Please model this.
Amino acid sequence: MVVKAYVFIVTKPGTSIDVSNEIKKIRGVHSADPIYGRFDVVATVEAESPEELTRLLYEVIEKIPNIVRTETSIVLQ
Model:
């Protein structure tokens, strides 16, 4: 079962482009774009299981420098 999610990311001021470029390098990330609005970056990710998604979010994405916080929305299937 593939789990797809959108990750909305708040970054430190002036770092959204750098953060999105860093996120694009991660296995399982299909897109990462800097945006205007409440969040600074939105990423589309896929994982093989809910546990793998949790690992991707907490152990990889949230450890990237300049990320302040994230909010994840899992796609209904």
User: Anything to note?
Assistant: The chain has one domain: 3-74. DSSP finds two helices and four strands in the chain. The CA atoms of residues 26 and 72 lie 16 Å apart. The chain has a mean pLDDT of 96.
